[in-house]
Amino acid sequence: MPSTQHIVLSPHYDDAALSLGGAIAQLALAGEPVTVTTVFGGKPNLGQLSPFAASIHARMGGDPDLVSLRQREDAEAMAILGARSRPGDYLDCIYRRDETGTRWLYDSQSALFGPIASVERGLSFELAQVIASLAGQPAGCILYAPLAVGRHVDHQILHRAGLILLDAGYQVQFYEDFPYVLRDPNGLAKSLDRSPRRYWRSRLVPLSEEALARKVQAIAAYRSQIGVLFGSEEHIQPAVESYARRAGGGAVAVERLWECAARSPAASGPSLQSQEIAV
User: Fold this and answer.
1) What is the pLDDT of residues 150-174, one digit of tens each?
2) Is the pLDDT assigned to residue 254 strictly greater than 90?
């Protein structure tokens, strides 16, 4: 039988490894083909950055061509995980402007984690169509999309695209956005409650020691991001392992995936019941 095609929809060049690196490594080790599609991975006009985007470049080491640097980091990380990398052409939200080209859509930290700009309300539908054309027929394909924990606007847009693909017949599983899920104890519950779909069930993916180690190594490959996300490289492993074991109840390191569950009349909100599955 042909292998299932696994397509991880990553907003940016580090999100797949951060949130689902263990499962990706485990699938690849088992011989399952995994493609990580970085949706907002396009290259901006470096001569026309907003002051906010320029400040982010400076915070991440000051490399003028930050996207090319992140692509090289991503290639290294995907080699560690055993996945194929497919960069997308859409720009990161910090580089996007309105249709007239006169106004930056997301030009502050608060805008980065705020509502989707009104001019981009149709972007999720556009992305869903692009992803469907890349994925082909729904049969034999599993898509992985972010839950949008933390409310980064690009994660929100891709989360909604995942729901649209689900309605179109694709099998879609949603991953917890790490490390955003660490920063707010109630962030996961709020994200599930805020989603257009309110009825969820979680599935635990137990990770082997090798898969967990590869996840940590892959995250460390994104050197431009380490200071912002973890402070220093030595903090990566404790943060990753601590959350993985907490999600697994303490004994087993896991990554947790979420699926939309059938609506139950007795349900009053998102289900937090978990089932263990092997990947």
Assistant:
1) 999 999 999 999 999 999 999 999 9
2) yes
Q: In b/e form, how buried is each residue of 43-77, taking b as 16+ CB within 10 angstroms?
A: ebeeeebbebbeebbeebeeeeebbebbbebbebb
Amino acid letter for position 190: K
- What gap in Å lies between CA 60 and CA 74, rounded to an integer? 15
Instruction: Give CA–CA dist 17/30, Å, rounded.
Output: 17
| d(C-alpha 277, C-alpha 256), whole Å | 10
Antiparallel, parallel or unpaired: β 254-260 and 200-206: antiparallel
Q: For the domain covering 5-276, report its CATH number.
A: 3.40.50.10320
pLDDT bucket at 262, cuts 50 / 70 / 90: low
Higher per-residue confidence, 97 vs 261: 97
- The Cα–Cα gap between 268 and 27 comes to 35
Give me the residue spans of the domains in the chain. Answer: 5-276
**98-137 residue pLDDT tens:** 999 889 999 999 999 999 999 999 999 999 999 999 999 9
Task: Tell me the two tokens of residue 163.
Answer: 């729901």
Phi-psi region of 71 (alpha: psi -120 to 50; beta: other; left: phi over 0): alpha
